[in-house]
Design a protein that fits this description.
Number of helices: 2
Helix content: over 70%
Strand content: under 5%
Protein name: YvrJ family protein
Organism: Sporosarcina gallistercoris
Length: about 40
């Protein structure tokens, strides 16, 4: 948690929120990709 607070103080809150949302989006895109690959195999 202290690392996150240091990161927020260094780069600013909007940049931190942007990185957080991009990370969440990446996880969802990987799940979609996995589902599409399994559909293609069947």
């Amino acid at each position: 948690m202290e690392q996150m607070m240091g990161f927020i103080q260094e780069v600013g809150f909007p940049v931190f929120v942007s990185f957080y949302l991009l990370h969440r989006l990446e996880v969802k895109l990987e799940a979609i990709h996995g589902a599409l690959v399994t559909l293609k195999v069947k």
